[in-house]
Write a structure and sequence with these properties.
- The protein has no helices and 9 strands.
- The strands form 3 sheets. The chain has a 4-stranded antiparallel sheet with strand order 3-2-6-7, with no helix packed on it. A 3-stranded antiparallel sheet has the order 1-5-4, with no helix packed on it. A two-stranded antiparallel sheet has the order 8-9.
- It is mainly β and 114 residues long.
- Keywords: Immunoglobulin domain.
- One of its GO terms (biological process) is dendrite self-avoidance.
- This is Ig-like domain-containing protein.
């Protein structure tokens, strides 16, 4: 998977940088930025993971001005138990609470069956 940033016009030299969630990208062995020309740069995700979700901003600047554009990346993640439901016992007429919680993206739908 890759994100591309291409500048359509401007005087050289142009500096292109990537930010994630308004911060400069932290070192990640699964993500590599590559300058493909004087006017473009790509962000290559070698192995996409949940923590890669976020807002990615491409900043391009030269001596005259700076511009940027932001796009959101949402990585789909299969459901995982946060609290796996367990059994319970109770007397007739009393209340029983069974906890159940899962996370993922999109947010999992929990359904109880008897």
């Amino acid at each position: 998977m890759q994100l591309s940033c291409t500048v359509t016009a401007g005087d050289l030299p142009i500096t292109i940088n990537w930010l994630k969630d308004n911060r400069h990208l932290q070192h990640d062995p699964d993500v590599e930025s590559k300058q493909t020309s004087d006017f473009s740069m790509v962000l290559v995700f070698k192995k996409l993971r949940e923590h890669h979700s976020g807002s990615y901003t491409c900043e391009a600047a030269n001596a005259a001005a700076a511009v940027n554009h932001t796009a959101t990346l949402r990585v789909k993640v299969s459901p995982k138990w946060v609290v796996e439901p367990g059994g319970g016992t109770a007397l007739v007429g009393s209340t029983v609470v069974l906890d159940c919680s899962a996370r993922g993206y999109p947010t999992p739908v929990l359904t109880w069956m008897k």
